[in-house]
Design goal:
Structural class of chain A: alpha/beta
Helix content of chain A: 55-70%
Order of helices and strands of chain B: HHEEHHHHHHHHHHHHHHHHEHEHHEHEE
Largest sheet of chain B: 5 strands, mixed
Number of strands of chain B: 7
Number of helices of chain B: 22
Distance between the termini of chain A: 72 Å
Largest sheet of chain A: 5 strands, mixed
Oligomer: heterodimer
Helix content of chain B: 55-70%
Largest interface: A-B, 27 and 23 residues
Structural class of chain B: mainly alpha
Chain lengths: ~400, ~500
Amino acid sequence: MQVKLIVWIIVLGFFISAGGIAALRVLDKAPLFVSDASYGTLLGSNFYERFLSKLSGSEIITLQALEMLAVFLSAFLILRKMNKPKNMIILAFVLLCFNPATMWYMFAINSELFALLCFMVALLVFLYNRGFGILLSFVLLFIQPFAFLVFMLVVSALTGKKLLMVIFSLFLVGLSFGGFHNFIFEFGSLNGISFTLLVLAVLGAFYSKNLNPVWYILFVFLVFRALAGYHLFLLIPAVYLASDVLYKLLIKKWSSPVLKKMTISLIFLSILLPFAVSFQKMVASPPDFGEVDTLTYLKQMPSGNVLAPAGYDNAIKYLAGKKAVHSDKLFYTRELKEAREALEESGIRYIWLTPCKRSEVKDTLGFLMHSNETFKHLYSRNGYGVWEVICCTNSR
Amino acid sequence: MKKAWIVLISIFIIVFTLRIYFTGSTFSSEDAYFTLREADYVKQHGWVFYNDNLSYGGRHLYFSPTFYLILGYLMRILTPFIALKVLPNLIASSVVFFVFSLTKEITHNENVSLISAFASGFMPVYIYLTTNTLNPHFFIAVLFLASMNYLIKCAKSKRHLLKLIISTTLLILMHPFSFVFLVAVWLYVMLMKLENIKVKSYIMEFIIFASFLWYSVYYLIFHDGVYNLGYRIFSMGIPLQIYSEYFRTFTLFRAFTGIGVIVVVMGLYGAYKSFIKEEKRSSYLLLVSTFIVILLFALMRVMMLTEALAYFGFLLAILTGIAFDEMLQYAKKMKHRRTALFFIAVLILVLLVTSASSSYIEAYSQYSNRIPEKKVTALSWLAGFPSATVLGNYKEGNLITYFAHKKDVMDTNFGWDVNTAERFEDIKKIYTTPFQTSALELTDKYSIRYIIFSNQTQEMFGVNSLKFRENNNCFPLIYNKGIKVYEVRCRLS
């Protein structure tokens, strides 16, 4: 069978899975996109993010699906241009498509995907015509300076401009220490690149004989960058290196054919498992209809800070137009006097609780909210609830 | 049958007899009762339970089911005494065969291998860890040593590859602790490369297979836990208060005597000798990488010090064999050969006597520290009451869930999801506070209905009675036969 056909069958598999997630979320009456970070993008500052904020959720997902398709097409053309064996191209597509990070970036509103597309297109053009490629890469500067630096690093590696490479490397190191977040937390659990893929990529980096040393440096930078939360850019070199090593594993003659078959099956199992798990989690991810509805209700209320669980700051800012405040002291207090003082101190006028937080605080703040007149229940939907604090009006 | 095998089987029988002699009607470890709950469930339903409604008032557990499945299915076909007492001790005693085989593989000397086997079988810390405790390490240690044994054999011949695959697969399925073995093996490969020693291609293939097997198995089991708790899922979540107490009572002297002073000294000498001898370097690197990894994991609090000590002990027992082999070879070349051999014989005799006597004392102490019958009776009496939460100290948690079938506030199944440090402090406060309102606030918090007051609690918190009991109507004494049980009849709210 032709390699092109197999690749498109794999891509089709990816889009059928994406369609499954979309359908299940619609059946659950949840918005198509996932994660609080999506609202963060809609509140963003660069031109692409401002453009996204003018579109509806479904329009953004459609746009992102098209961008993803274009990324796949660019990846295919780049691999073909590099004269990679057809089986390696097929493996690269299996790794690229059946990966939690790929699926996540399609359903989380973000500018990363567009930056990646620009990066891939610029790289592809560069392989054909260097001047046009570099020119195109300047678009990245306006969307994501990091992507531009990665691109320039690749370019300097390919052209052998060592001084340029060092300069860009230093820039990247500076950017990479922007802020670490729990990388292991994300290992293929929801939106992280699966551990198997990373291990294969590291093996690939060590075993690739014809690899320019700069690729190693690039890979290390991207790992650092992934530590700061940008998984998508790491995905591309990781897929490249992992498919290379997986291809070598497949064609290599093992001492024990049975062991080889078992190992290869385990590798594919460990590639597909995180994808299956993230599929299931993405269907059930917030936001859901109750969240959107209660926060939209809160938008029409007069201004004031909102006491809310952590992780909903962007949603509260975007949907309710108010500032979120978190306070464990308030959530777990049993003293009304103490609660009133803390509420007054933080300028909190509204309390917004998720179903999970409601059950967590039912014996503390939840108990106080039900048993006295300091708190007025305003609105509830699907377990989400909004209360107004009416004690401290004078001080406000 | 060869003479060495007769001696080895005799060692095995003596170790087994010692272990079986000191098994009581109750277990010496509270953890054993969690194992029993799981095994009983497997016996009835054919699979383990992950949602435990009783532990910590109800929680989700993350563990590998293999050990409990094996025990549960054994309980289906065998009597409880054979399944829970005889078979675990038989398996635990079989470490002597693997240590013998490992040492023989390195030294090619059956006599010194017998000494190593004896030292491992009679290692006090291993006896403490696995006698009358139903601790899964009786199984894990055997599989761990078997895997090491076959790996060293595989370095010479491919013949043992299948055995290596089987023993490692079982080890991986048994417990996440198998990660220690895998990391040690990767480290071994790296050290071999550094030493310019060629690693056989089929060994590399086996390591890749085992690594992906471990990842696939534990991704399936822990993926939710990793998502919810991050890397902390692999840590034990032991509250700092308990951990510091553990360190306070743990001394270097205890570590030395736990393994055996002669075994430690001779083991270190053996390590030195293996390091400088070119032909033993390959096997030695596996021992040294295992040592480093276990030390690292113990320091990271991923494994308990007692467990780490037992595995150090096995490694040192093997190295002791190497040391004696070296000494014997050296003595044969000496001018005063007879004196040297006499000295070695005395050293061996001291090792045998000290190991045997220390392990006898350890086994006896385990037997004496078994769960008292009066506690079992009190908790079984509580089983007749309707569903409720029972407060005991954290060591009594698994007994409450097993014998009383009631929810506990805390037990030894620590984890990051249940805020163990806070619970430990709250339990301590209930037992030590002189104020009834403070006690009621906490009994309300955990919906506690009964409070158990035992000698163990008295010793743990340094109290003679529940000081806050001003009013007997709120906390009436409902059971007083060696163990006191109080009922909580008041609520603060």
